[in-house]
Amino acid sequence: MILKKKVPLIDQHDKYGFWGGKFGGSYIPETLKKPIDDLTISFNKLRKNKIFLKKKNFYFKNYIGTPTRFIKLENLSEHLGGAQIWAKVVSDANGGAHKIYNATVHALICKSMGKKYIVGDTGAGYAGKMLSMAAKKFGLKCKIFMGAKDIKRQKPNCDAMRKNGAEIIPVTTGSQTLVDAVSECMRYWVSNCDTTHMCVGSTVGPNIFVKICGWSTSQISKELKIQIKNEFKKIPNKIKLINCVGGGSSAYGFWSEFIDFPKKQIELIGVEAGGPKKSKLHAAPLSKGAKLGVLHGAASYVCQNLEGQINETESISAGLDYPGVSPIHCFLKDTKRAIYTYATDEEALKAYKLVTKFESLNPSLEPSHAFAEAIKISPKLTRDTIVIVNSCGDAKKDRDILKMRLKTI
Ligand SMILES: *Cc1c(COP(=O)(O)O)cnc(C)c1O
Fold first, then answer.
1. Is the beta carbon of 320 within 6 A of some atom in ligand 1?
2. pLDDT at residue 219 above 80?
3. Which of 106, 138, 213, 265 is the most exposed place for a label (fewest CB within 10 A)?
4. Assigned CATH class of 65-96+218-408
């Protein structure tokens, strides 16, 4: 398995949609083939269309609020006494996280395809919330499929979706969580694809959704590359780019412009959710050696039991609590271009505490996993090493859980 140079990783799949011959693909019912083929043709045209690109850039700047900041965490670096630690503050984006990039692009695609309705699935509710925001902005009617169990657990996000005018469809089949919401959403899409577009909230799902999402979040590394050059006058020799990995959309977006660099110069480190220290449960398929499986229409490493049933996952961070991972990250793991590790709930909480003690930055629990790794490795490194963490979410959404758990840490 080899990585090609000068071809975006989202395009390095074979004609069947697999990266490295085995990750990804489109495991879909026959009835979904037509809407997926139509979407593929439309996206491939739009991504080369100057008017569409101009529109995308306009809304990225004027609606999402890009470029986001690239800042030095001087106090934290001083305290740890090793590498320089920097942050790309993607949580500056509208809505407080990177999911808005993908949601905005899907809303623009929906409009360009002449459709007035957009549907999506959501687990913890953030993907649904961001999609409802984008739908409202672009005047689209929005339905969010969500497991009945998740609706009960995620009230604030449900309230936000309804406030944005979205209709939440409770899914009462199976485990009544994300897995079933995805199936129901796809079923709905099959029957309504003439008027309706579907959005998948991360670099997961059938091949085309991985590509659209990766294309959207790559904005992050495009900005970062310019910001690094402005700051250091060149791309320095020792850089480590650290990102949390749930589905993997923020990590792909943070890394995409740097994958062609030698790994000695730019190291890519993905941090998964290790779950509570004392629990066997986690959401870390890459770093804990999960086997290849099929989940949500694609082949990837999936947390599963010996029979291939999807394992229950556990993490303090709702955004990372997902049993699968993007096929793109499976490929980066197998080619050894990126390395993957995990942080436990406790390590993420401690990292949150330390970062907020020294800096005026409020990273949510997902990027706190990435900060945990930065804090672990930085003291052993020299001052000329540039550690950059993608601070991809704002902790406002984690207020209640932080209040409860910080007492015990
Ligand atoms: C959803 C979410 C994630 C996990 O998704 P990825 O696709 O891995 O980026 C990470 N951080 C935040 C803030 C999120 O909302």
1. yes
2. yes
3. 265
4. alpha beta
Which pLDDT does position 38 carry in this prediction?
96
Question: Is the CB of residue 298 below 6 angstroms from any atom belonging to ligand 1?
Answer: no
Whether omega before 236 lies within 30 degrees of 0, making that bond cis, reads no
Q: Distance between CA atoms of 291 and 306, rounded to whole angstroms?
A: 9
Cα 250 to averaged position of ligand 1 atoms, centre (Å): 6
Which residues make up the CATH 3.40.50.1100 domain(s) of the chain?
A: 29-60+99-214, 65-96+218-408
Mean pLDDT value across residues 2-14 = 95
Residue whose C-alpha is closest to residue 318's, from 256, 258, 365: 365
**DSSP code at position 284:** -
What is the pTM for the complete model shown? 0.97
Average confidence (pLDDT) over 56-68: 98
Q: Which residue from 184, 187, 212, 190 is spatially nearest to 199, judged by alpha carbons?
A: 212
Mean pLDDT of the chain: 96
User: What is the DSSP secondary structure assignment for residue 9, as one 8-state letter?
Assistant: G
Q: Which helix (H) or strand (E) holds 42?
A: helix 33-46
What CATH number matches the domain at 29-60+99-214, 3.40.50.1100, 3.30.420.270, 3.90.420.10, 3.40.960.10?
Answer: 3.40.50.1100
Quick one: pLDDT at residue 175?
A: 83
Q: In what order do the strands lie in the sheet with 239-244?
A: 69-72, 84-89, 386-390, 239-244, 266-273, 338-343
Phi, psi at 406, each rounded to 5°: -65, -25
Q: Is the minimum distance from the CB of 317 to ligand 1 under 6 angstroms?
A: no
Q: Confirm or reject: Cβ of 392 under 6 Å from ligand 1.
A: yes
Q: Which atom of ligand 1 is nearest to the CA of 127?
A: 1
The answer for residues whose C-beta is within 8 angstroms of residue 316's C-beta and 6 or more apart is: 273, 275, 276, 345, 348, 349, 365, 401, 405
DSSP alpha helix (H) spans, 60-125: 74-80, 99-112
